[in-house]
Design goal:
The protein is of the alpha+beta class. The chain has four helices and five strands; from the N terminus they run ααααβββββ. It has a three-stranded mixed β-sheet with strand order 1-5-4, with no helix packed on it. A two-stranded antiparallel sheet has the order 2-3. A hairpin with a 6-residue loop joins β4 and β5. The termini are far apart. The structure holds zinc ion.
């Protein structure tokens, strides 16, 4: 008799526990979800991420864009001053680099191969 009563109460307890869903255990950080890189980035990392979203490359981390080097499409050389020294590997297999000063203004030609280079102003992000 006592065993039957105990079994009945155990079955009831088991069925009522199944009916009520047990809430999943959550930690405080997981309530709002895991923060994204953009949400937790600070300082220089945040500046670089915002610039990358806008398509800019403020620290010249990406490969430079290639230009034809012609008068209509000169190589663009960024500079924070009005002149910059440029090294031109005139042909792909050359082992020597031709160095020359590039000044602000119109496009200039490499003294050896004739490729055009143009100085463009560049502002540092800080
Ligand atoms: Zn050259």
């Amino acid at each position: 008799m006592a065993a039957r009563l105990l079994l009945r109460s155990a079955v009831r307890a088991a069925t009522t526990c199944r009916a009520a869903p047990i809430p999943a255990l959550t930690r405080g950080m997981a309530v709002g979800g895991i923060p994204t890189d953009e949400e937790q980035a600070t300082g220089l990392e945040k500046i670089v991420m915002k610039a990358a979203q806008q398509g800019a490359d403020p620290y010249s981390m990406l490969k430079p864009k290639e230009y034809a080097g012609s008068k209509a499409d000169p190589h663009l050389v960024p500079s924070i001053t009005t002149k910059r020294i440029v090294g031109c590997v005139c042909e792909e297999d050359n082992t020597a680099v031709v160095w020359f000063w590039l000044h602000q203004g119109d496009a200039q030609r490499c003294p050896s191969c004739g490729s055009h280079y143009k100085l463009v102003p560049h502002e540092l992000p800080h």
